[in-house]
Amino acid sequence: MMKTAKWKDYSVIATGDGYKLERWGKVILPRPDPQVIWPSSFDMEHYPALSAKYVRRGGGGAWERRGNMPEEWTIGYRDLKFKVRPMGFKHTGLFPEQAVNWDKMDELIRGAGREISVLNLFAYTGGATVACAAAGASVCHVDAAKNMVERAGENLRLSGLEKAKVRFIVDDCKKFAQREIRRGRKYDAVIMDPPSYGRGPGGEMWKLETELFPLVKLCTEVLSDNPLFFLINSYTTGLQPQVIENILTLNLKAFGGSAEAYEVGLDTEEGIVLPCGCSGLWTKRG
After folding, report:
1. In sequence order, what DSSP letters do the residues of 29-51 get, joined into one string?
2. 281 near 258, Cβ under 8 Å?
3. Structural domains in the chain?
4. pTM value?
């Protein structure tokens, strides 16, 4: 289990009854979490200074605001800054557990001793993009959702990285990768955080279990002759870390290097670890 302890503006206060109680700066939010199948040790509903609660209703859900919760606010991790905003499907626009991977990529990029170019697919609001840019890499940030790409640009500016070499692309990730291959463009690193399920712009069905291996195989064709790393994140329930490690090993064996996969989690103030998906990282230093 990989965890990070460097957050000051975020913490998991407690868990139980299908919820995690989180502190985002000065804002306190309970959000549903399918991994939390144990009872709560106290009443989250009446926790002091509760700002809002995401409540499931039928097949969806909505935020119930309490007190004077702002529409959006900023939190920081090290020198990185991110805008947080309660959104649909219980999200806030940031996945704090990914900080463990931001740290890994920061170390790899700074230690490479050369300029590194990164392709970030399914890049969402740009946590990894900002982390890689802060480490000195050039980044191509790709996501099909225009509003998420706009939020990524805002996070980059909040972090004082307006002059960083970052391209923001609104596009289908697979189709963009195919075009980059035809153009002969190469990258030293690839990051991807694909969804479990989804539909493409033409109604194409996406299912991670059947699409992940061929997508990784496709993306090996955009790698430079001396790639630095390839990172896959997954929140798909039931997908074991070893599966991701195997996919990376099989697709990248021609480049040498080695792959590892691991659960990602968050320490909680109640003394347990909350699991938050898994990641696989292939690296080739030098």
Report:
1. EEEE-TT--S--SS-GGG-TTB-
2. no
3. 2-78+82-90 (2.60.40.1180), 96-283 (3.40.50.150)
4. 0.94
Q: Which two tokens stand for residue 281?
A: 């990282």
CA distance 218 to 208: 15
Confidence (pLDDT) at 204: 66
> What amino acid occupies position 147?
N
Q: What mean pLDDT is predicted for residues 140-156?
A: 97
**pLDDT at 159 > cutoff 80:** yes
For residue 20, give the amino acid letter. K
Strand partners, 21: 14, 30
Torsion sign, CA atoms 84, 33, 98, 217: negative
Distance, in Å, from the CA atom of 158 to the CA atom of 156, rounded to the nearest integer, reads 6
Measuring CA to CA, how many Å separate 63 from each of 36, 71, 94?
A: 19, 12, 17
- Each residue's pLDDT tens digit, 93-123: 999 999 999 999 999 999 999 999 999 999 9
Q: Is the pLDDT of residue 202 over 60?
A: yes
